[in-house]
Amino acid sequence: xxxxxxxxxxxxxxxxxxxxxxxxxxxxxxxxxxxxxxxxxxxxxxxxxxxxxxxxxxxxxxxxxxxxxxxxxxxxxxxxxxxxxxxxxxxxxxxxxxxxxxxxxxxxxxxxxxxxxxxxxxxxxxxxxxxxxxxxxxxxxxxxxxxxxxxxxxxxxxxxxxxxxxxxxxxxxxxxxxxxxxxxxxxxxxxxxxxxxxxxxxxxxxxxxxxxxxxxxxxxxxxxxxxxxxxxxxxxxxxxxxxxxxxxxxxxxxxxxxxxxxxxxxxxxxxxxxxxxxxxxxxxxxxxxxxxxxxxxxxxxxxxxxxxxxxxxxxxxxxxxxxxxxxxxxxxxxxxxxxxxxxxxxxxxxxxxxxxxxxxxxxxxxxxxxxxxxxxxxxxxxxxxxxxxxxxxxxxxxxxxxxxxxxxxxxxxxxxxxxxxxxxxxxxxxxxxxxxxxxxxxxxxxxxxxxxxxxxxxxxxxxxxxxxxxxxxxxxxxxxxxxxxxxxxxxxxxxxxxxxxxxxxxxxxxxxxxxxxxxxxxxxxxxxxxxxxxxxxxxxxxxxxxxxxxxxxxxxxxxxxxx
Length: 563
Known about the structure:
This protein is an alpha/beta fold. The protein is built from 20 helices and 12 strands.
């Protein structure tokens, strides 16, 4: 990574860790304490074992084996071994659970941010690819606390404590050799490993996401690809992407193995140096052989503070890219609105509304004003591109207006709480999606607690009940994208789902598209009978819709409206 990219990546990783820490602070702090305890217990265990073995041997050679106290050191060895095992279990349990909970919270926030994105962005999103990117980015972040921040913090703390203990128990020269050797050599090794793995780590993650997206597209479009004879070719392209991913994975494995070898060599050199230095000090009479053994065995145990970091360095590029994208998405969260105000009915007032797209020669809407009372219906008409759909999106707060004022139930649109607004307002756009599942499941997406009686009433309102009964009722199984229903039937099912929400303001964009005139009129009348007090605003191009409406507003090509 270049210096700028490296700094940006590390800043992103730190911000993500702060998000995770804020969500699960208590559990992570406890886990970090246990991680530190594991390292200290391991170092103390090997250091005490080395001292015990050497001291016992020296006592035996001096003929004092009978009076040498073997019970307390051996008891301490057992205590440290059992305590280390228990601390390791608790540390894994706390840190992994806390990380998974925090990542779940991040996923929810990212999904909410995506849903609150401007409509122009949402309509360009490809659902499977966007979801795949979001999930993969969040999955890549589990290594930030588990393999990077917490191990580094615990390792540094353990190194510092060991340095102080060796200075006190053994000799400052032994302590300095071990601390300087590990910190200097491991820092250089891990830095070089991170640089060597950066591009491969980023590319491997990009190829993995491309493979998953390509595989999803292949499965979803397999029938069409087979018809046009492209199935084998597309399959080979997906496999080629996976082969490229595996090439980058092999490079990362090589970097990780080399880093592991370098760290092992570091541990060997530091331990050998500590042993040699201990022998020199022993001969000089500065320390005893048992104390020299403490330095040697402690240096062996300190390998545990640096060895696990080689995997984090191999994945650093992947984590940094994911952290940057997640931070950008979290930072773009929509404005929080307030004023969760309800009433039995709502009316709509739009005054001097204007909207212009970026770099457009003329406005889409130019000082449009409408009023719509509860129980009234208004049809917006006009040529294609006159701004009918745009007007509905602005009223639904999915597009920002350039100027003007919108009141819903006498409350400014900007002051409505998001939950409150969606409770009173429902928009049915031109294109709505049905997912695979039963008719009951499709309808209950709009009203999870709706009973079968309520579901049938909504189906009756849109003249779809008879069709559904002939196909097996509410348990009739739809395929992906609503397969099993015609275009007009799928449209009516979407309308029925919106009716179950019982909105007080209903926005319909070409609601009877694909229906014959008699069915269209029956559906419109059924909607009004189902929601007698709702204010209904439609973007219409069919005569049957304008005849049904109480009033009509025509938009011209200049973006102005006239009733």
